[in-house]
Amino acid sequence: MSKFIKYFSLEERKQHTKVIIEKTTNFLYNFTNNNTLSGFILVLIHWILISLLLIYLIIGEINTLYYICCLLWLIIFSLHYYFKGCILTRIERSLWKADDWWGPWIILFAPIEKTGVEITSQLAENIFICVAIILMTISFLRILYQMK
User: Fold this and answer.
1) I need a labelling partner for 60 at 20 to 30 A (CA). Which of 1, 12, 34, 140 fits?
2) Chain centroid, CA 72 distance in Å
3) Residue 4 CB: number of other CB atoms within 10 A?
4) Are 29 and 35 in contact (CB under 8 A)?
């Protein structure tokens, strides 16, 4: 994965992120005329898509759709590395001007922060990697035992 990232300079990745945020913000604003509402719509889409994907990976029937979900998860995982975080969460932060927004991870991070643990970017990345490894392991084992 790191070899892939090395092909793109940090400045290129920042520029790509900036362009995607601007284009998405403008696109949503054309429908809502309100960045707060645009952010809410994006959060709903973000959470619904991620929830459906995760639920299907954990309990869905192993068929072509399952393999498509696995591929989508790998793409999401790769994009997190490219953008150094979720691009949708970055757009949501931009729309709401909220640097402390963590996207769907807020469900996990809010209770952790209540215990006094500060959620840093590095800790968030480590948690994401651990969850990704767990999900990939579950998916692999489900596929493996389905093949018997």
Assistant:
1) 1
2) 11
3) 10
4) yes
Percentage of the chain lying above the pLDDT 70 cut: 94
147 burial via Cβ count (<10 Å: 0-12, 13-18, 19+)? exposed
C-alpha 125/C-alpha 110 separation (Å) is 16
HSE at residue 109, side-chain half, CA atoms within 13 A, is 17
Residues 99/93, Cβ–Cβ less than 8 Å: yes
Sequence spans of domains, the chain = 10-146
Three-state SS for the chain is CHHHHHCCCHHHHHHHHHHHHHHHHHHHHHHHCCHHHHHHHHHHHHHHHHHHHHHHHHHCCCCHHHHHHHHHHHHHHHHHHHCCCCHHHHHHHHHHCCCCCCHHHHHHHHHHHHCCCCCCHHHHHHHHHHHHHHHHHHHHHHHHHHCC
Any idea which residue has 């520029």 for tokens? 15
pLDDT band at residue 1 under the 50/70/90 scheme: very low
Q: What is the pLDDT of residues 33-67, one digit of tens each?
A: 999 999 999 999 999 999 999 999 999 999 999 99
